[in-house]
Amino acid sequence: MTRMWGNDPKRLSWLRLNGAHKETHQAAGCIKKGKFKQLMGHVRKGQVAIHLLKVYHDQLAEEMLRRGYNHNTPFPYNDLPKIGFLDIDENKRELKRRGESLEVRKGEHDNKN
Hints:
Distance between the termini: 22 Å
Structural class: mainly alpha
Helix content: 40-55%
Number of helices: 4
Shape: globular
Strand content: under 5%
Largest sheet: none
Number of domains: 1
């Protein structure tokens, strides 16, 4: 999982938007299988708040639709346990250290893949 959790989906490049969307479903799969342990490293680092996964998924899906992409994968849970937190500032610093950007490049919304 990447350290972009909690960042505004409108600021994500298409690659990051799509990746974050997939990660919400991966996390849901872990939860569904009772494998919270696999998410705990991300939880401890402030990369994911379990109880906000559906909210974040829905924001990502809304942005996907706004950009003209299809979204056919609803999030499978409504009530998730309140586990974790988001350290958005640290997440942004980590991306910057990696030389990555959250910013959408000019014209990217027009490049449907």
